Please model this.
Amino acid sequence: MYEIKVKAAFEAAHRIVGYPGKCDRLHGHNWTVEAAVCGEELDALGMLIDFKELKAALKEILAELDHQYLNELPPFTQGTNPTAENIAQYIFTVLEEATCLGNNCRLAAVTVWESPDSCVTYRR
Ligand SMILES: [Zn+2]
Model:
């Protein structure tokens, strides 16, 4: 089994509504997102998936989140707090539909780093 990962970043503001502490206040993060794809069969070039294509698909999703107030975006307006957990689940759900994912591989995990020492991984 092969697993490949790409990483990209975005900057955005959020607040955790109802949090009993300072995270309830408006603040921002430099979010780093890792996407992992796994599979067993390589293509004729010996690749599971082209890093470039996977990174482009991830960056397209992150471009929608970059320099936004996340609480005002549709995934997070129905009472879903834009926590690292919910951001990871959202990115996973969108990225798993990316056309660059061939029949030989599937999205395995999305990891969202909220700070250099705190991250969340979402898997199906
Ligand atoms: Zn925060």
Summary: The chain has a mean pLDDT of 96. The beta strands are 2-14, 27-39, 106-115, 118-122.
